[in-house]
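thought: fold this chain, then report.
action: predict
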Amino acid sequence: MTKELDPKELDVTCETEDLGCKTSADFSPLKTIVGQKRALQSLAFGLHIENRGFNIYVAGMPGTGRTTAVMAFLEELAAKQPVPSDWCYVSNFTDQYEPRALEVPAGKGKKLVGDMNRFIEAARTAITRMLESEEYSRKREERGHRFEAQRDELTEQMRQRAQKAGFTLEGTQTGLLMVPVVDGKPVTPDKVEQMPASVRKQIETRREALETDLGTLFRKIRNLERDLRDDLRKIEETAVRFTLDPLIAELQETYGVYSKVVEFVRAVAKDIIENLNEFIGRQQAELSAVLGARAPSPEEFAQRYRVNLLVDNGARKGAPVIIMTNPTYANLFGRVEKEPRFGALVTDFSMIRGGALHEANGGYLVVPTRELLLSPLSYDALKRALKNSQIVIEEPSEALGFFSVKTLRPEPIPLKSKVVTIGDPFLYQQLYQLDPDFRELFKVKADFDTTMPRDKETIRLYGSFICTLNKKEDLLPLTAEAIGEIVDYSSRLADDQTKLSTRFDVIADIIREANFYAKEDRKETIQPKHVKRALEERIYRSNLLEEKIRELIEKGVILIDTEGEAVGQVNGLSVIGLGDFTFGQPSRVTASVGPGRGRIVDIEREARLSGPIHTKGVLILSGYLAGKYSSDKPLSLSARLVFEQSYSGVEGDSASSTELYALLSALSSVPIQQRFAVTGSVNQHGEVQAIGGVNEKIEGFYAVCKAKGFTGNQGVIIPKSNAQNLVLKDEVIAAVRAGKFHIYAVETIDEGIELLTGKPAGQRRPDGSFPPGSINGLVEDRLREMIKAMRKYEASGASPNKG
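observation:
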């Protein structure tokens, strides 16, 4: 149910009774750093939990020994853990461009390399010796003699049949030639031509009958030749396999429990048999002549059977702890090297080199956040590796999309490593707010002192912190009311009515600035007005862009309506971050609709101004419309959505409910009241979900309404789940209290559209229909009209609209 929030729900106020003091001088200084105990506890938790996504962000200011502390903690923990496996790459005989990855216990990788090298040499020697053996030669000769006997028998049968038919067989370079015999003597073709026609016809008739008869015998001889080749090949394969079996059995006995190694060994044996000539160097000269270049030597060809040891943990004790201070893409994920051969760059599986993630697999990888973000591709690739739990080695140029050449695509290696990234709280906040993947992959923050619960104990800790700062820097004491302002602002920093921020560097700067203004006023204490002035001045120093945008809106350059009505148009709310300052900006969102194939076109995406999360939010709208209105019929709709006058990237799904409201208005032809601005994401069931930056968004639209003039009915619609995040400026709260501005909290799209249009959304009735005149009913009627229009259009023979 739609709820207008009471002014009391828009902020929290620190009562002086909670402080129990007159000034900050009444508190005792802090003896420990707030939050460090939790940091160690969080670090221990993150390192012990094995579920995916529980990687760790260690937050803290530089110079506090955070890296040293983390490394010491990790090395102590890793020493008690098992040594991870070795990893190798080997040939994939099915597809040479996709080498296979092999996992073996620590120390077995180097042994496997040596065993395969010995196997290759032993196999070549044994096969060569076998092919030169008397027994092998005897078997081939026996099979050859049998073939010759069978062939001679068939040839004799052919001669006898030819003789009976009055012909003799003579061998030529092109095969057997049938020559007629007259009076016991062969007759040349010239003499045959001189014979009477009746005789020639008789000879030709006998020739045709004989050719049919001899054709059968010729086919039998060809079948014998084919059988001979097959038998000789089987004899050779059987002999080679028999020769290799003891060598393979030895390897299987050693590596029998490692199924992929056994599979590889068997594949090697099969490939040797299939490529025996190349393996032993037989017919190498002939091959070189055919290829027009030097054919690979046996040693070069045998390279495909060797093992590339990527990670060797044989000498390691405990799990690895790898710190990568230069986390470039190649240093993290490895690379595929190339070398020039015959004027071209070539590569194979033996040139695959591992990176820090391979070395840290089964243990811990520590990377500095700033360097990770500055290195091209590294951060995104690391996220993909963590999301997919696998390490993929690929060409950086291909990942960037510059160009694509045929190269190796090694089989991904499963990733079982914990990643610990070390950075300052600012980077954490930026990543958390701007990169949804970061939240999913780095679920453990080892410096929880950025926020803490707001209660009497933590409020008094603030007093102790202020007392410590005052004494350390000889600042004026703060009155209880001024401390209250600091505490309330701390909740604003935390974006939560129930939390306090522990970004004590920011708090300390505010106190220092307030101290400056208090001394300027020749006061002996820092009072609430000095704290407020410090906060206002900090905003004033950074909000030039906000004021410029606000000025453009006020002048009508950027079109934002705060009164009136419009179909398919709604005020959306976004947040612009400038690093040291964040502010909310209203944007006009419009929608247009027509008959089509159920596609909603995100113009921001088509113009490549949309991020993946925003695109996802738009795609969810299709799911909502299909589920709500098209369970029994196709969605014959073509829609366009756009942020008007937006010339930079759009990311996040906080505008998805806004876009849906615009779409519903365009479909129902019911205008939306422009006195509202909307924020909130939506799911396919029409539930309005929480978003970030709610305070800045509300204050952004409030400032626009103030500049263009209050009408008394303007306001903002937010998700109900964001109500707890409201810590608004006193000016906004005063306007709400005076009835000039309103803040509504909704849980569903139906609640929001009713508020925006003044018409009931309408619930589906028992007969499956919506009430006539309701928003949902009008939308469903319009969609039915579009279906009819599409059918009529298609029936006319025109090409259907694919948009």
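thought: worth noting. The chain has four domains: 18-34+451-542, 36-84+316-446, 130-254+263-280, 548-762+772-795.
final: tokens above.
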